[in-house]
Amino acid sequence: MAPNSAPDNIPDNQIDQFLNYLKVERGLARNSLEAYSQDLKKFSLFLDQRKINHVEEIDRAMAIDFLSEQQQLGLAHTSQRRLMVTLRQLFRFLIMEKVMEVSPMERIPMPKLKKTIPYTLTVEEVDAFLAVIDRRSPLGKRNLAIVELMYGAGLRVSELVQLSMDQLKLEQGFVWVTGKGNKQRMVPIGEPAVAAVEGYIKEVRPAWLRGRSSNWLFLNRSGKRLSRQGCWQMIKQYALAAGITQAISPHSLRHSFATHLLERGADLAVLQTMLGHADIATTQIYTHVTQARLRQIHRKFHPRD
Predict the structure, then answer these.
(1) What fold, for 11-96?
(2) Single pTM value for the model
(3) In the chain, where the domains are located
């Protein structure tokens, strides 16, 4: 289902209007719109099975039945929370549009999010990761620029693949990043990242474009924009080559960026700005990471442990 198309069995294009509202008024990114659309498709099928033709017929018990059904089907904990957020936003929109008077989601508590400490690479693992990249080949030069930039600026993979040339300010040593909700932030980058990106731009990118024009920063060998999947696959291959046994993703580099800064005394509020977190509580998970690592070091080296 396209992010801006409604399930066919919901009348009056109410879902369609809601998705358009999220896109235009709230500025949600395409990936978020796609997630909302998929959640609403599930809800639409649930209503269709129960012969519900109008949203006014939906009550709290029905909403609970739907959420319970999804849980029984094995929906991941984080996906259950997102599903609840989707429905809450939908019914708020319908109340705002005077389609409904009361939200069926009222008094349905949000399941508590299980805090998980993300796996982060050690500084030595980052060095090993970078060491396996072939810096002589065009592909290696591009991949080095990607890894240095992701680790050097703490970028999400979606932010990286959507970087344009005019977002780079390499002489000043920073990059403008468009994050969630189309919010922009300025993130400083160090000399290794600047040098790697400059090398890729000068030595690789023009050859892959073959005389064509493109404003995307990172391209594949066909001269098209690098995909998220391509970035994921590249990160996994280098992790294996570096002998890293833990499951690594592009987000692992972002986690490592944040953790290593905190370990060296970075201010939490400054880190929040660089990561583009709307809520500092999201950034605070990295304090748990550093505490866990300190405990691990203590257990390993203290004579009484």
Answers:
(1) DNA polymerase; domain 1 (1.10.150)
(2) 0.63
(3) 11-96, 123-250
User: Which of the following is catalytic: 41, 156, 255, 260?
Assistant: 156
For residues 138 and 223, give the distance between their C-alpha atoms in angstroms, rounded to a whole number: 13
251: annotated active-site residue: yes
Q: Superfamily for 123-250?
A: Intergrase catalytic core (1.10.443.10)
| Strand ranges in the chain using DSSP code E only, listed in sequence order | 168-169, 174-178, 184-188
Annotated catalytic residue within 23, 88, 185, 251: 251
When pLDDT is cut at 50, 70 and 90, the band that residue 282 belongs to is: confident
- Is residue 156 flagged as an active site residue? yes
Q: Indicate the pLDDT class of residue 72, thresholds 50, 70 and 90.
A: confident
Between vectors from CA 158 to CA 154 and to CA 159, what angle results, nearest 5°?
A: 50
Q: Residues 95-111, buried b or exposed e (16+ Cβ, 10 A)?
A: eeeeebeebbbeeeeee
Q: What angle do CA 10, 15, 16 make, to 5 degrees?
A: 110
Residue with the bigger pLDDT between 14 and 242: it is 242
- Catalytic residue, candidates 180, 185, 224, 228: 180
> In the structure, what pLDDT confidence band is assigned to residue 179 with cuts at 50, 70 and 90?
confident
- Residue tagged active-site, from 142, 254, 255, 260: 254
36 is catalytic: no
